[in-house]
Amino acid sequence: MGATLVIGVDAGATTTRCVVATLDGEVVGRGTAGGANRNSSGGEVGASLCAALTASLAAVDRSTVRLGVLGAAGSAGAGRGAFRAAAARAWRDAGLTGEPVTVTDLEVAYAAGTAEPDGVLLLSGTGALAARFSGGVLRRRCDGYGWLLGDEGSAVWIGVRALRAVLAALDGRGEPTTLVDAACAHFGVAGPSGEDVAQALLAAGFAAPPAALGRLAPAVGAACESGDPVAVRICAAAAGRLLHTFDSVGPPPGAVVVLAGSVLLNPGPVGRAVRAGLLARTGAEPRAARDGAGGAAALAVGLLTGAPVAPVVHARLTGARHEPSRE
Q: How far apart are CA 63 and CA 50, in angstroms?
């Protein structure tokens, strides 16, 4: 029998990622699949989980896997039971024994950025929220209520407001904006203006899963960088909403701050503004959470060993730079 292995899964709204690793942080398998958020992905959660697990186990002896931690967006509150059932079913279908441990995307994202037990996560990707951790336990969260009722400052929030501005520009309620051309290019709609273009964009927007509307966000950022006033206001509003969410979660002085999600980790005006705001508030640069599946694997290592995860092991799993402890 080979070395003891753990599994970490980060089931996002658009992509599900899986990592198989040893207890010292060596990654021996990876797999990806479609989104697994029951609120916005438009697909079957269990199928995405099973596909990612199966891909990651292609060259792995399944009998050596002792524990898995699976985290997902949309798995808190009312979604907790449904995700736990889907995870258990996918785990069995992938040929694994035992029961997986399920957590939310918050624990996974925070663990992807640091091994410190105390700090704050600020996330903006498909969704958006802030979460405060103490002693490794989630103590308070703000937002993360989904594309329809919250997620202020997320990629979907940006995309929806861009489409609203585009439709307003097309029917005369709003000012002209280069976002019209960007939206037409994004959705493959022909024509520079008019009611037909507005209706075509409307149909394309409603035909897409809500999570997919966030794919328009990079074009909004590009238009902002080019000086489009409408895009500038949307990006400034997104950054302001995210910083307000961070403030609302009650971050303690000197706490580690972890950033997660494409809006904050990829280059762009929203991420720059948020980083500047956080630096002014905390006096320190935030850390980046880039590999949620690695963060979930780090949680699995900690659960299986019953000990804090060594920084060097955390760095191997997440691909992060080895950060010295603040203690």
A: 17
| 326 has a pLDDT exceeding 70 | no
Q: Which two tokens stand for residue 140?
A: 């308070």
Instruction: Categorize the per-residue pLDDT at 319 as very low, low, confident or very high, splitting at 50, 70 and 90.
Output: confident
Report pLDDT for 195: 85
pLDDT of residue 322: 42
Q: Residue 294 in contact with residue 267, Cβ under 8 Å?
A: no
Asked if residue 17 belongs to a domain, the reply is: yes
pLDDT given at position 74: 64
Tell whether 275 is covered by a domain.
no
How many domains is the chain built from? 1
* C-alpha 41, offset from chain centre: 13
Look up tokens 């029998």; give the residue.
Answer: 1
Quick one: pLDDT at residue 191? 65
Task: Give which of 171, 167, 199 is closest to 180, Cα–Cα.
Answer: 167
The secondary structure of residue 41, as a DSSP letter, is: S
Q: H/E element holding 196?
A: helix 195-207
Residue 30 to residue 21: CA distance in whole angstroms: 9
Per-residue DSSP letter, 5:
E
Neighbours of 265 (CB within 10 A): 16
Residue type, 29: G
How far, in Å, CA of 93 to CA of 91, rounded? 6
Q: pLDDT tens digits, residue range 255-276? A: 899 999 899 999 999 999 999 9
Q: Give residue 27's domain range.
A: 5-116+290-318
Establish if 62 belongs to a structural domain: yes
The CATH number of the domain holding residue 85 is 3.30.420.40
Residue count of the chain, please give it. Answer: 327
Residue with tokens 């969410």: 245
Is 240 part of a structural domain of the chain? no
Helix (H) or strand (E) holding 111, with range, is helix 105-113
What separation in angstroms does the CA of 185 have from each of 190, 191, 203?
Answer: 8, 10, 15
Neighbours of 44 (CB within 10 A): 13
Given a cut of 90, whether residue 96 has pLDDT beyond it is yes
User: Does the structure show a pLDDT above 80 at 288?
Assistant: yes
